[in-house]
Amino acid sequence: MDESCYWNQKTFAIVTGASRGIGRxxxxxxxxxxxxxxxxxxxxxxxxxxDSLQKAIETDRPSVRVHVGVTDLSSxxxxxLNGVVSSALAGESAESFAHALCVHNAGSLGDATKRCxxxxxxxxxxQYFQLNLAxxxxxxxxxxxxxxxxxxxxxxxxxxxxxxxxxxxxxFSSLSLYCTGKAGRDMFFKVLAKEEPDVRVLNYAPGPVxxxxxxxLLHQSWTEEIKSxxxxxxxxxxxxxxxxxxAGDSYASGAHVDYYDx
Length: 262
What we know:
Helix content: 40-55%
Distance between the termini: 17 Å
CATH architecture: 3-Layer(aba) Sandwich
Low-confidence stretches: none
Largest sheet: 7 strands, parallel
Structural class: alpha/beta
CATH superfamily: NAD(P)-binding Rossmann-like Domain
Number of helices: 9
CATH topology: Rossmann fold
Radius of gyration: 18 Å
CATH class: Alpha Beta
């Protein structure tokens, strides 16, 4: 597909975990490709970093309205998520957008020092899956319900991206919660693709990217399999790859696509 057919349209886009790492780089890249009068909703719990990103994007792309949703996805409920999306729309009709895009990037590693048999706290497990699974499921439903109307004057494109991982398809010692969360998210979005054929759904595994999460992993993990992982990718590299996959639009909806896939 010609990239101009995918981008350069009036778009409503959500990026979670947008304050740093992959989310921040991706938000910047998406903003550069959005058409005039687009809306970009940045969600994170880090208000200071979100504000700096908002200012940078608004300076670079004054035709794009950037909304900051300071939200802790590990503890918020559906009313808070509804409120964030409603505030970003600011009374504008969902049908006025040619493209609706939601990137579920927020997530956490969990405690990589622990084995499966060390996970004895129900509260810790519940909080982990609130951030890494439950909030994703609920925000996704809120997003798609907002853009479910058949009254759009244009053929509205809807795209959902789940930031996945090789850990969603292969087990790694010391990463039991992380692997479980990623596998659960992958399957949820596969089901979504089956249920909603008019929505383009992508599970994207970004590869080993040099972020704070990878630094934490290399520091905490007790397995040589992980510690000998070598150099990682930059956020620029993996976000450029994702942007190209989206614009090419040749993936099977619901598919798991890795950075290294041909």
